[in-house]
Specification:
It comes from Meloidogyne floridensis. This protein is α+β, with helices and mostly antiparallel strands and 83 residues long. The chain is built from 3 helices and 3 strands. The chain has a 3-stranded antiparallel beta sheet with strand order 1-2-3, with helices on one face.
Length: 83
Amino acid sequence: MPSESIIWQIGLYKKVNKDEAECLECNKIIKCQQSSTTNLISHLKCKHKNSDFQTKFEALTKQKEGEKGSIENHIITGSGIKF
């Protein structure tokens, strides 16, 4: 099972139904068909780009990328494989 997208972790959106979410800041309904978060991220970047939500999203994204890099480094180093 894939992990929850960071966009849901920032507290800006509430799932309305299977294919829609509501922005809790401006009450806009945003399509998120088939669990896609592209429209949610675009809405954040266009409508709330200078908000605390954007800052939190960027911080969590950097943190996740750092964790991924650490795991990849550990696997590569631990196995003796070097690129």
